[in-house]
Structure formats: structure tokens, C-alpha cells
Protein 1
Amino acid sequence: MYIQDISKHSICSCARDVIDLENPQEEFKAKRLLDSLIQELQNKAEHQVGEDGFLLKIKLGHYASQLKSTYDRCPLELVRCIKHILYTEQRLVREASNSSSPVGGMMDSMSQKYQQINQVFEELRLLTQDTENDLRKLQHNQEYFIIQYQESLRIQAQLTSLATLPPADRQLREPTLLSKRATVEAWLTREANTLQKYRLDLAEKHQKSLQLLRKQQTIILDDELIHWKRRQQLAGNGGPPEGGLDILQSWCEKLAETIWQNRQQIRRAEHLRQQLPIPGPIEELLNDLNSTITDIISALVTSTFIIEKQPPQVLKTQTKFVATVRLLVGGKLNVHMNPPQVKATIISEQQAKALLKNENTRNDSSGEILNNNCVMEYHQATGTLSANFRNMSLKRIKRSDRRGAESVTEEKFTILFESQFSVGGNELVFQVKTLSLPVVVIVHGSQDNNATATVLWDNAFAEPGRVPFIVPDKVLWPQLCEALNMKYKAEVQSNRGLSEENLVFLAQKAFSSSSINPDDYRGMTMTWSQFNRESLPGRNFTFWQWFDGVMELTKKHLKPHWNDGAILGFVNKQQAQDMLMSKPNGTFLLRFSDSEIGGITIAWVAENPNKPGERMVWNLMPYTAKDFSIRSLADRISDLNHLLFLYPDRPKDEVFSKYYTPPLSKAVDGYVKPQIKQVVPEFTTTNPDPAANPTYMDHGASPVVSHPPNYGIYPPMSDSMLDADGDFDLDDTMDVARHVEELLRRPMESQWSGQQS
């Protein structure tokens, strides 16, 4: 208990310095953790008093010595072990705390399934113990039978030797020997039938065990492991983590142990048959049993060679990437005694299909991966056997001929991991292979957007057991909504996902519809072409490209405002106008641009300067990530004094003030730092006091410069930057923006010669 509490304290204190187990350079941190843990144990030992304390002091000192001797050369293993323990405890706590919630109901269902699996393992244990007892009994009876058989041979030899005796002696001894021989032969006949029955009964019990083993293995491999792989695939789209493999590994190890015990029993039964052949069907039965048990263990070994950490599904050439392959039964079958090597190769979709059909692919590959060989390592603390590829890099890729309108970012590859090893002293040799999730290879960052679309569609809609890498060409709109919402929440790292109103807006955009009824879209389907091959009507980008642009902008610059609910986002221009016209002047909202990828605009209601008494909705030219890299959204909203209330009626400072950049410090050594601010010419508040109102250089939606009053040499521009629809024309003002930024980059003295203080 002491060592457990101390280790928890130490690992938690080290949590701030997150240790990357895959990075050998982190060993220094792990060593520091080990030393800290040993020191705490020694300190605890020193403070123990009394008789009980004396014993505990000895134990704690022993623990400290044991930790040092075990982990001093491999401190990362200690971190791996403690993290494993903490993860298991956290999972158990979560399961217990969720028992009353809907999720808890699901956990109860899982617990019930786990209980059933464990009950079957107990039944298999009892069956295996029963067949072990029967086998020993059979062996004992057979040994006694052989002794009696040898006795019958001795009697027969004695009878044969009687021929050399005088007739009188032969007549005296022969009846006794004949009677004895008849008795032994009768017993042998009965016992031979009994042995045959024992053998057949044992074979039938083994058949029952193997049937139950195969059924249990099917549940674990075809249900639980496949479900884990599906969760792993959805995690690639931002779904919840697939969870650890500890429970699955424990089940697979129990399977391996039980299968191996039954296999050894069947081999011993075969040895007994060969030792004492008795005519009958047992030979064929044992051959069938041996074939069946070999098939079962082969299926177990090949199915539990899995990819624990997938390579990136959008894979850029000449870029380092990692992957981890694990053999769930490696420790139990002692594969680590002769550590196997794993090789990684990139292959095409067609090569993957041929591989699964067992067609000869002539060791073809579709590219060259550097550092693609790795030896499997056994981690004693966790009992895992895995190969960690830490420095792979795709040097080159060989593309196949594309079909129709397919682009390079729609072409799918996969990483093939393969190895060979033996178990049971070379009794069985296995060649194992496993394929990664589909990867799309790119050579430039500009291809990332479309490659991600291919991966998203594949991860979301792939069917289990499919032919590589077939996916439906069209899916129901609600299915796509689920995938988009999962991806959005993960990318933005927010619990605020896409609302039903947001999804209706997306449906309107996807299907060029004006309906606001969600039910109208539930039965509609969206094709891959509509998703990311055909441009939206009147635009030069696809539905996915627009959506991905929104995600990227929100993730990088707008996340806190999205989480606060300050961004409505998925609202079109007409909807914004309808919403704002019923609100007081100065009310504004934030919506994603319809016309620009990765843009967000401010819409607000105000007076029409050309028609006194009439109000209208204005739309600012969309901001992009480039704009926010210069000045944040909150600061831009702060700059615009005519924006008063965030829709529907929240004062803007109440929402955004916590994100405002603090004012610049005062002049240092007579120099004043220039300041970038944003203005809208038609809505700039005039102030008669020039000292309180710095002059601005405006240029529409782009940031502008506020100079100190002594240097106000640029008067406000009088020309309107708003078009007839209330939008800013950014193209006409970009040269001014560039000029301002150039001014800011120049040394102060070159800009304001003669103005130094």
C-alpha cells in the first residue's frame, strides 16, 4: 500500500513533465522519477518506529533496492508500468461512477458480457482439468495393460519352452500355464476394449472443449477485437479513444494457454496410441483433433498480431512518422525468447486485395519506407510484446493509374506489417501479416484538405470485413452528419458540437435547398462527388473544403469564442438580416462566410446613412486566419465602437473583454510603439480632442494603424469602402494594408526622421 501510494504521488508530480515513452531522450525524466520514488521509500523507511515499524522499514528498504536493481537501467519501463496501473484504476473508477447513467447502463451490459466470457473460461478450465485427469488415468491403465501384455508374452514363452521338457514335466506344468494364459488374454481383451473406450471418451471430451474454445475465440476475435479495431478507426475521425488492450490481451492469453494445454494433451494421446496401437477409429479422430487445434491456435496468433498505434492516415513524403505493432499472445507463447523482426511496406489498394486473396504479389511494394525494420521487444512490467517504429519516413511513392475523375488524394494505400516466428520449440512456425488503416499519400501541404476528406469518408463508412478499400459511393445525410459532428468536436476540441440548426444550414448548403425542416433531409443521400469532387453552385470549392476551412479557422483562432457560444457561425446572409432587423442598432452576430473558405464575417444592424430613418444590415468583409494572425477577433470587435450587443442582447464587453489584449506600455526612451487597430470609415466616431483620438489609416476589413497623436500625418480617408450591399471590397484595399505593414517593419528613425525625442 505504501509503495502504491508513493508511486502514485511520484507519477502525478511528474505529470506536468509529460514523459513520452516512445522517445528515448525522455529517459532522463524517467530516471529522475525513479530516483525520487526510491528516495521517498527510503524516507518512509527512516520514519518507521516500533516493532511493526521495524518490519515495515525492512520491507520498504527491500522495495527501494528492488526498484533500483530492476529499473535503474531501464527507467522508462517503470513509467510504463505505473501509467498502466493508473490507467486501469481510472477505468475501474469510471465504470463504477457511471453505473447509474445511460453510459453506466452500457457499462453494465459490457460487464455482463465480460462476466459471460469469464464464465466460459472457467468452464474451459474445468473441462481441460477433466481431460487432464482422464489422460493420466488412460496413461496409468495403458501402462498396466502393457505390463500385463508383457506377462502374457512371458507365459507364451514358457509354454513354448515346454517342448524341450520331458512329457511328464510338460503335462504337469502345461495346464497351469494354459489356464494362466487364458486368464491374462481374457483380461487383455477386456482391457483393450476399455482402453479404446477411454480413448474415444477422451477424444469426445476434447471435441467438446475445442468446440467451446472455437466459440469463445470467435466472440473475442470476431466481436470484441473487431469492435476495438472499429473504435480505433472512428478515433481517426475524432471519435472517443479506442481504449486499452489489457482486457483483450488477458482473454487472448487465456485462450492461448487453454489451447496449448489441449494441444499438448492431444499430442500425448496420440503418443499413447502410437505406443499401443489398437484397431479402431481413434487414429482418425486424433488426426482431426490435431488439425482442428492447430487451426484454432493459428487463427489466434495471426489475428492477435495487430497495429496498436496506427501510422498517420494522411502521410506526407519525406516526413517522419511512427507506428506500433503488438502481438497479444506473444508473452504467453514465449515468442520473446527469440524476438522476431517486423518489416513495414507500403502497398496499393490492388496489392492489398491480392494479398487477402493469397495471390502471389512477388513482394511488390508501392514505395520505399526508410527505417522500416524493427525488432519486437518484451516489456516485462506490462507483459506486452510490441515493435515500436519510431523513425519511419516515406522516401518515395509509386502511384497506380487512376480511375475516371479520381484525384491523387483519393488514391488509398496501406502499410503492411509482417513477421515470422516459431512457438513451442519450432513445433509451429507462423507468418503473420496485418494491414494498417488506409493512408492517403501527399507530397505538399496543400493536398491535406482533400486527403483528409478521403480518410474521413473511409473511416466513417467502411464495413467490417470489406474488400480493401471499398466504401459506399453515397450515404444517408444523418450518417454524414454524425461523422461531421464527430470530426468537428475533435478538431475544435470542444464539447459544443453541431446543433440541429447548424446541421440544417449544412444540409441547405449541401443540397442547395431552402427548407428549414430537419425531417426533409433525413431520407436524403449525399454522394462522394457532392461531398468533395463537385464544386458548390456558384463557388470554386466543394462542400468539404468549405466545412474544413471553418474547422481550421475555429480550431486555430476562434475556439474560446465557439465554446462560449459567441459564434452562431452556421447562418447565411439572409438569415442574419432577418435575425438582426428586429434588434436595436449596434446588435451584431458572427457567421461563417458563404463565399470564402475559412472566413468569418460580422453582420450588424445600423442606420442607413443614405436614407435617414431607415435601418439596414451591414456585413464586414470576411476575416481569415491571416487577419487573425495580425489582430485577434476580440480585439477587432473591441476596436469597432458601433458594435454594442452580441446577438441577441449581450453587451459585447461582457462576452469578449476577457480576451482583449492589454494596452501597450508607455513610451520607453522617448519611443512610442505603433499600434494596429481596425476602423470602419462610415462608423468611425469623431472626437474633437486630437490627443484622445489617434488618427487611423483605414483599409476596409484589414487591420489599420493607430499612430501616436504627434505623428498623425495620415488623415482619415473620405472615400467609402462599403459596396451597395454593405460589404467591404478587400481587393481594392490590400495594397494599402501592405503599405501599412511595410511601414511597421521599418526602423522608427527611417519612418519619422526628425521626430525623435
Note: The first strand starts at residue 305 and ends at 309.
Protein 2
Amino acid sequence: MGARPQGGSAIQVTSIGGHPPLHTVKPLARTLFNRVFATIYALSILALLFYHAKTLFYPTTLVSFSVTLALLISDLVLTFFWVSTQTFRMFPVCRKQFPENLTKIMERSDFPALDVFICTADPYKEPPIGVVNTALSVMAYNYPTEKISVYVSDDGGSALTLFAFMEAAKFATHWLPFCKKNNVLERNPEAYFELNHTCTSEAVNIKKIYESMKVKVEQVLERGEVDDEYISSDQEREAFNKWTRNFTRQDHPAVIQVLLDASKDKDIAGYLMPNLIYVSREKSKASPHHFKAGALNALLRVSGSMTNAPIILTLDCDSLSNDPETPLRAMCYLCDPATRPQLAYVQFPQIFRGINKSDIYNAEFKRLYQINVMGFDGLSGPNYLGTGCFFQRRAFYGSPSSLASPEIPELAPDYIVDKPVQSQSVLALAHQVASCNYESRSSNWGSKIGFRYGSLSEDYHTGFRMQCEGWKSIFCDPDRPAFLGDVPITLSDALNQQKRWSIGLLEVGFSKYSPATFGVKALGLSMGLAYAQSAFWAMWSIPITAYAFLPQLALLNKVYIFPKVSEPWFFLYAFLFLGAYGQDFLDFILAGGSVQRWWSDQRFWIIRGLSSYVFGSVEFFLKFLGISAFGFNVTSKVVESEQSRRYEQGIFEFGADTPMFVTLTVAAIINLSSLALGLAEVFRGNSLEGLFAQMFISGFAVVNSWPIYEAIALRNDKGKMPLKTSIIATLLAGTLYAASCFIFR
């Protein structure tokens, strides 16, 4: 587990007792190239810093000193990100699993039990039918059904979500045996029926049952309440009466509803069903609820009191299973004695469905979800990505060598639950541990036990802290994606999601557990830097903003701040730019990306740097100084038809009124004006030598800003740039130019 593959082609094979191997690992072929290129590029960076220092110490004017200092700071930030990126390029590995060999070393009846956590918070932003599909897709895993328990956390406390899962429980009795009998690959019904798998009378009948359920759920959502006409049994009526009694109170107690009981409920073929349990934890204005991390810890305790499976799978509400063999692939590591003792989790990549051809909002995020994690995997293992992750329950309770005991023995990771999930004592304990004041009994929850508090990015924080405690992790990236998620289809949703992540990461970066200090000490320089790159993501805004405005404003004032084309220093700048972009392009293409999507990836990096990262940084530091606070905003999963059509056509959505569009538009106006002035100077006969670098940067920004110009002047649909945004941005751009005239004169 701890050994790192060495050499360019060595393959490590893990087998048990002479049986066929469960998995292999080998380094990527491009590792040697990465190391050689890093050496050359590092020397070039040192040369650039020398050039800045020389100019800084011998300035000709105060303006020259100020510009050089700004560029030096920007380039130092870029240097930090380049150095931290190299940690992912030094030891990248790829793995292969052999789930077919599992049954050769153990019986299926000996497979460990699996608890699945699915979190949802708002039925109007996260439609219940989508959450239902996620649950059904994992309930139908090719895994001993009676060993699966699915826990759905409804942090919105909505009767609509509860109703949806009551209907899902009934549909599951038909869906699960159908999947097993026909060896269905797509085990979320929505995807299955979208592929028109209805060539048999049995499939047609299943589709009718599913469509009936879907219509009922969507009608209830549209009405906003569950009428008596939708309740089909006294048991359901009692459940809703109980829900109503609880949720009409301001400080409602926890609601836990067992919808399917694996000890007695059977499908239409007579086989036992998995457990399906609805959980709405107690929430009170008088107690902190810690957002998603709090919901996950409530599930950790509730599941511990009811089933206490040794393996836990965490899923976002839209992370649909795409391969019924996925848990078997995870078990290739979790059931291997060679890897298990220090293995905290097995992370699968986040891969998304419904992305348009060019991926205009960089939803694929290939560097975060695939490229970087392969580099992490060659060190101590990948970071936790928040979904598609199989944990050992033990990893939530202290380090591999030191157990952090919970307050009561029933929550210990090795406790054996020997009573049915619906027994009175089990349900009583489950309600107790889901109460909002339960964690006040111990200071360990969220710090030493469970998912970690203190950050909106609870996934990053939790994985990082686990690895600091001595746990390892593994990245599992099979050919067929294990999970498929949904993506934001509007620019405002995509940017707000990135802003929330930036704030959460900065919360860790500037805490006592900062990867730059605590992480380097606990994990070593490479892993510390790897985690630090993500923690300080928002700092990308410094060089991106500097290079989006400073050269352009200087050019507008006919001040030239870069070397002439004929000077040797110009070729250093050219090499650094082309080298960074070229290697990023190579990484992207070798990871299976396309040229078109790579262009969108680098463009959206610039967009984030001028919007999400800027506003995320401002919000974080305002909170840090105690001036304001922020909350957790759920990313909408609702798809509107017009927005969906524009997204499929690759058209940016600017219809929302958000200040983040103002900064983007200001940058677009400044860069277009700068390029126009530069071209005018060339046409007047001025030499291009001194202008070229600044004109190139302006031109590069203008090409990337085309969707903004189009939204301002060439579109009439609802996704065009709001007139208010255009006017404010124009005024700000004019003000910025006027200020620069004063500075550069």
C-alpha cells in the first residue's frame, strides 16, 4: 500500500495466498518527460524572477517600479501554483482492478455490509425524482442485497421528499428483480428508459410503473403538498401525520422512517430488499448545524445505531450509479489484507452526463477530477471529492493506530447491531443521536470523529485531515464510469458553485490545519503542497486579474512594460507562456480530453479568476474579519427548457443579475479597447516590437471574451447580458481608464 511504483513501466501486482490478483498499479509513461521538463521550466522561472529583481532594484520611474512589483507578485503566485502542480506530475499512477477474482478468495456471503449516504436539502433545487433515481441505482447493485442499507438525509425536512421515497420503495420491489433477471447495466431507471430498452412486454410494464411513480412525485412537487389522494395506505398516512406533527413545531425533533426493512421486506420475486431509511435530523436555530458535514455526521451516527456497516459510500443526490459492479471494484482494495489496515477510502472520479460538446462551463473539470488525483494517487492517495467514495467506517474514528472512541459504545465502528432496524430500542437510539444537541456531549464530533467541521468544503477538509492522521487512499478509475452526475447549465450557477468551493478551501487554508504548514509537517512537502494548491485556489485571482488589466491599461496610456520582440528576455516570456499552456494541453489530451474542451477549460479558468475567485476571496476575508457571514447555497439541479436548449448549443447564459458578470464585462471592455488602440498604433506606422507582448495578451483575452461581446451586442434571447450590467461595466471601465491616465502620466 505505502510503496510507490518506481521506474517508467514497473507494474505492482497484489495477490492473496496464491490466488489471482485483485488489482495492479503502474506509473504513467510520461513521468520522465514531466521531470525533465520541470527542471528546464524551473530554471526559466528563476531567470524571470531575476529579470524582475533587476528591474525592481534599478527602476527608471516610480511607475516602472510599481508595475514591476505588481508583475513580480503575480509571477510569484504563478510560481507557487506551478511548483504545487509539479507534485501531481512527479509520480502519477494508474490502477486496474479484477473484481471477478473476489469470489475466488471469499464467498459472496462474506462480503462486508455497505451503508450508502445520500444527502439532499431542497426539493425545488434538487428534484426528488432525481434523488430517487440515485437511490434506486445503488439499491440495485450487483452485491448481496440484504447487505445494502441506503440512508437518505433530507436536510430540508420536506414531506415532498419523504413522499417520493415512499413511492420509490414500492417501485423498487419491481425494479430490483427486473435488473437482476435481465442483467441490466444502467440501473437508474431514468437512464435505462431514455435508451429505449422497452423491447419486451416486461420492460414495457416496468416503464409504466416507473412513469406512474414519476408523474405522482412531480404532481406533488408542483402542488407543494401531499394530498390524501396520493396516500395509498394507513401506514403512509400515519407516517405523514407524524411528519406533520413534528415539522409544524419551530424546533422539530428528528424524523426517521424505515421505508424498507432488509430483514423482512421482499421484492415481487420473493428476494429480500435492501434497507431504505429516510432521515431528517433535528435542526434548531439555537444550535449550529454545520451544513452538509453536519448532515453526514448525523447519518454516520444514525447508521451506526441501526446497521453499522464497516463500509460507507457517500453520494451526492445526483450521483447516479452507472456500473452495478462498482462496489466489487472498491472491495478489491477494501478486502485486501495488504491495503486494508491503513486504507481510509477508495475514491472514484466525478464524471458528468449532459455536458455539451465544448463543455463551455468546464463542468468536466478534468484536472481536478482525473489528472490531479492520479498524481495524488502516486503519493499517499487522492483527496476526497465529496461523492463516489467508499470509506472504511473505522477511518472516521481516529488514526489507524489510535481509536477515538465515541461517547456511547453503540456508535463504535466495530459494534455489532444484533437487532432489527425497526426495533423500538434501535429507533430510540437513532432518534437520540440525530438530535441537534447530541454533539454537545462531546467536542470530538467534527474535529476528531466523523466528517470535519470548519469549512464549506467538508469533503476536502475531511480527506486532508484523515491523511494527516496517517490514513491512505486509492483512486479507482475504471473504463466505464462508476457514477454520473449532473452539471450546472447556467453561468451564474457554475460561478456560484466555484465561489462556494473557494470560500470553503480558504477556510482550511487559513486555519490551524493549513496544508502549507500543518499539512507539510504531517504529510511531507509533496502532499502538503498538493493540498495547498487547492486550499489557495482563490489566489489565482491575483495573477489573472493583474494580467487582465495591467498590461492593457498601460497600453492604453502608451506605456510598454514587456521586453521588445528583438530582446532575448522576450523569448523567456514566450517560452514560459507556451510551455505552461503546452504541458497543460498535453495533460488534458492524454487524459482523454478534446481540443475544443481544452480551450473551454483554459477560458473558464480565466473567467473563474475574474469572478468566483475574486468574490470568494472578498467574502472569506469579510467573514474572517467578522464583518459578515455567509451560508451554504445549494446548486440548483432544475433544468429549464430554454436554458437547456442554449446550453446544448454552446451559448453562454448571462441572463442572471450578478456582480460577477460586471467584473467579467469590465475586463472584456478594457481588453478590446487596448487591442483596438494597439492596432491603431501599428496602422499609424509605429513599430510592433514594443507593442507586441501587450497586444498579444489583449488579443488572447479578446478571443476568450467573445461570448461576452456576443451577449452584450448580438443576442436578443433571455440569456443575453442584462443592460444594467453592461452600463455599470462600461462606467467602471471608463473610471478605471481615467484612473490609469492619472497613474501612468
Note: The chain has two domains: 116-487, 523-527+537-744.
Protein 3
Amino acid sequence: MLTKLKKFIMNQQKVSSLHINHMYSCRTTVILKGLISQVFLRRNYSSLPGVTENDVKSLRSIINPSISKIRNIGIMAHIDAGKTTTTERILYYSGYIRSLGDVDDGDTVTDFMAQERERGITIQSAAVTFDWKGYRVNLIDTPGHVDFTLEVERCLRVLDGAVAVFDASAGVEAQTLTVWRQADKHHVPRICFLNKMDKTGASFNYAVDSIREKLKTKPLLLQLPIGEAKSFKGLVDVVTMEKVMWNTHTSNHDDGKHFVREPLTELKDPELLKEAKEARNALIEQIADLDDEFADLVLGEFIENFDLLPPEKLHPAIRKVTVAQRAVPVLCGSALKNKGIQPLLDAVTMYLPSPDERSNEFLERISRLLLPFADQHIEIPSLTAGNIALTVGLKQTSTGDTIVSSKSSALAAARRARRNEGKMHKHNMEPGSLLLAGVEIPEPVFFCTIEPPSVAKQPELDRALNCLQREDPSLKVRLDPDSGQTILCGMGELHIEIINDRIKREYGVETFLGPLQIAYRETILNSAHATDTLDRTLGEKRHLVTVDVEVRPCAREKSEVIPVIEYAENIREELLQEFQEAIENGIRNAYLQGPLLGFPIQDVAVTLCSLTLHPGTSTTMVSACVSRCVQKALKKADKQVLEPFMNLEVTVTGDYLSSVLADLAQRRGSIQEIQSRQDNRVVVGSVPLAEMMGYSTVLRTLSSGTATFALELSNYQAMNLQDQNALLNRRSGLA
């Protein structure tokens, strides 16, 4: 229900985006979303104070309706499906920009970072606010590249609804599956928009089938295309039984503002009318299967002739099953060719939920507020529940924080929530969920060293990295204990490249990156025991502790670097009460560096068998002894290096399929299946991440630039002995 916070830089001020949420009392709610510093190229998107432009709406003119007429939505998709182009058309038709920007030209509203405009991709989510037919819409354009999955995660976590954009020639793609799973996780109702219906190879039926089969959902066909690929010229509204055609003969040529709706008739469009009737009947039957109340209506009044069921009865039923996430409406169009966007906006307002229909409630009060429009903002005096705003300052906040004025106000909100417990049960909501959990941050899979040009610049680099980590939790920075070098850990080659570029542009620090390396993990193959004693005298106080631990392999469904900690029965309860935190801190510290290569430990259980203490021994000494003892036990066991394996999807024409398969075989790739997608072949498999360095260049060469690929972390698997020994030799400098 909430939307993602952005931090903008304007007039030397950094601002953070907040969401004002629904409330139980008359106070409002504010929840922090994320902190994102920006350097942008300026473009005047709207009539700000002092500017007179009759054809573009001012941000100050945005309506402030009741909460039921607010929509907080995200645009999500696989990379290059057309999210940003769709967002650009939405802003144009709603009247907030004068001309249509283009991703290839680098002049879209929401891709305002220099790195985004140079590469033609979305890197960080951007918020815009506009109105449409009496509704206020707060929209977030999210990235589609796998390296920036966390950006999508922290947006979907707090959105009320989402528009999933698909390339109609490709259907469901690799990153589509990822963002769809994220939306499922956060229970976000969705609308599907089949974009690029004008593209060669576009197929409405193929795209719908892929949604049904791969996403395991029920698509509700609210529109049918009139033509496909080069012949695409409009669509049929199945609900109203109207033909929607865009006028390309106006003075503005094909800007898409002008279109006509006309009823389908037997005289003009007999075949189209027949197809639309069949689709409408199927839609009615489908919704009746999902909603008993609607089924009673249909069976009671319209059983003889579904044609008599008016759109006014059908719209609420579609909305009901959409908000309940029993099905997803499917619409179509071409954002690039300016077709289908206005009906999409209508669907957003009709079928996606308002903030008060979602179940995150909390209390808060905030001071200065600003209204976002990508890289511009204006100050506003107040904001009602369910909206997005910016605030200035918040220097200590980070992504996932819930902002409260005091601890007492949080406790008071929880007490009020318990009193309303019966009301919340209908949302399956517990009082503890009022404080939103932090986002689930994936572990980095790449790392490299990063150095400033001189020692004098190290503090500036440290400050830049601290700021970037706060706004991007998927970025990890650590200090190598042996070399003293700063280590940068990220989600992929592009992620680290973007971070390095931002440090240079935004913070003015020239940096040098070391070779990109893989983030391996380590585990053990058998059990091992160890005992260790730490005996220190500090001043007149003696600290003496003896620890006995056992380590053993522990297979888990989800591989994690969080230790499984167990205690022997002979460990006294009073001892645990005093020293449990110190013991577990010691075990976690030992987990950070494995005995082979110093990578984190995974899938190992640690049992504390005995603990003997001299009276007065400090918790710090206990923690240090436990950590050293666990490391000693790990060294005694047989050890194994684990390497990250990636889910791989390569889309290639049949002419180059054999070359791609031969290359993947050399990369230790495992092919699971080869799918057909129109005229292309989709190779689905898994491959070690270490074998995929520089793969994009190789794939371009193999396919003459026609193939594309997507990677997503699958799991960590044991390396075979030969590869492990080769890796150990390389790391020790012997190879």
C-alpha cells in the first residue's frame, strides 16, 4: 500500500520519500521506504510556480480526493518490456508533460539518472504523481534488470497494486517470474498489460497462454487486439463490446491522444463481434466460477442471455476478484506506438485497490512535506492518508525502517490495534505486523577491491560508500582483515559498475576497482570436535573460559549463512541466560570466514557441548573463545567449497542454437529444456556463475547480436574436487 521512498538532490537538499498510510484514529501514518541519492539531467516536466504553460498541468493542480480515489501502483516487468515507455505515455496522456520522451533518446521523465540515460535502462525506481478522471495516482517505475531486484522488492512491499508489463512477442520471461513471485509474496493485486502488440512476432494468444501456464494464474481477457504485429491498429473492449481505434490523422500525427470508441455491430464487424461475444461469455463464466455473489446474479437475472448483463454489473465483479488476487485482468496495446494506454489507466482506477482496502495500518506525524514528480518536487502544506510524499533530512534512516515519533506512540498504536483485533482478523493481520518487517536482502554474488587515488581520499570514499549502502542494502562493503583493502560486494557486474560510476559522478572521488571475483561459500562434509581455553588477566581480574563444541553438516531447504545453534542438555539454564548472546555472537563471527578461502560458512550446525567459566569472566572473552573454538573445529573437518549456480535463460534464433548450446557445455552448463517462443528458441538451464564472466560479449559474437540472456541466482552447489583444487591454487598464487 505504501510506495517506495526516493531521495533526490535539489538545491543541495536531500529528500526522502514517505508514504502516508491509512489510520485507525484521526492521525496519519508515515512509513520510510528507501533512500536514494540522485544526480540528474534537468528537464522541465510541468508548470511549476512562476511558469505559465497552458498545455501542461501543474503539480500544484493535482487533486486531493478521498482515500477511496487514490491508487498507489508500480510498473514491473522483465527488462526491455516497455515499463518506462508506458510510464512516459501515462504522464503525457494525463497532461503532465508536453512531449513524449524516448528511452533511446535518454529524455524520459523517470529515467533521470545520467547512468540510466546513457544505458537506456532503469536502475532506480522513480515516483511520479498525477491525476486521471478524478483519481489521484501515485506511480513507481521499477527496474527490470536482475541486478536491481531489490529495488522492485522494496517497492512492491508497500504498493496497493501493480501493472505487470509483458512483451507480447515473448510472453513471460525470466525476470517476469521473479517480480511476479515478489508481488505474490507481498499480496499485491495486479493487472497485465501485453505491450508491443505492434512488434514483429507479437502474439496475444501466446502471451496469454504463457501467463496462464508459467505464472499459474487465471487471466481475465478484458480486451482483444485488432490485428497483430504490423497490422495492429486498435482493440476490442470485451466488457463494453466496443471497438477502440486510435486516430492517426490529427495534426499531432500519431501521438495517441485522439481515439474513438464505437459499438461493435453485425453490419460493420461481423467476425469481430462474434469473437468478442465468445470472449465476453467466457469472461462472465470465469468470474462466476470465482465469485459466488456474481454467480447468483448471473444465474438469477441473465441466465438466458449473457448479452443483457450490463458493464455496470461486470466492472465491480472484475474488481472484486482482482483485489482478492483470484485472477488478473489482461489488457493489450503498444506504448511506443501510443495505443492502449488510456484504457489501461481506466483499468487501474476501476480494478486496483485503494489504500484503505489494504491491510497496513499505523500511526505517525511528520513535519515538512513535498510532492514528487521524478526529479522535481514542490512543497505542500499537508497530505491525506494513502498518499506518497517526500520529507527532508532523516539522516539516520535506511530502507525498510518504520518511522514513529516515539517508542510510546508505537506501543500506543499496538494497543489500539489489539482493541481492533476483530476488525483486523478479516485482513488476516496480527498487531505485530503494524511495524513493517525490513526487506529481504539477497546476498551479493560478486565482489572486488575498491581503492581511492590516494590515502587522503579514503575518508571521502568511506563517506560515499556509507551513503550508498544506506540507500541500497544489496550493496555490501567490508574491510579485508589481512590486506586492509576495502571490498565492494554486489549483485552483478552491472550493479558494481553503476556503483563505481556514481561514486565518481556524485561524490567526486576517482576510484580504482580490482578484478571482479565470485562470492563463494564453504561448508564441511563430516562432524568434528574441538576444545579451547582462553585465559587472560586484565589488571587484577582473571578471565578464564573453556569451551567444547561440535560442528556437523546440516542440510537445509534454503541455503543460508545463518548458523544453526544447539545446546547440550548439560548446559545450565542460568549460564545461558547470562551468556547466550555472547555465545551466539561468537558462533556467528566464526561463520563469517571459512577455513579454506575465508568465505562465509553455510549449512553447518554448531552444538555447544560444555562451557566452563571462572567467576567474573566477561562476555567479550566468552564470545572470543567460542569463536576461536568453532574455527578450530571447522579446520578439523573435511571441507568443501560451494559455488553460486545461476538459473539461465537464453533466447536465440534457431540458426544459432547449436553454437549457443556448444558454448554452454564448455561452461559446465546444464540444459533443462529448450522451449519454442514464436520463431525463437529459449534455452533454460543452470550454469556456474564463475563461467559467465563476460558472457554477454561472447553471446553477441555467437549470435551476430541477435540473442539475449537473463541470469538469476539459484543456489550454491559443491564444486568438484578438480575445480576446487584449481580454485585453491589460483587463490594461493600457485596457478
Note: The first helix runs from residue 83 to 93.
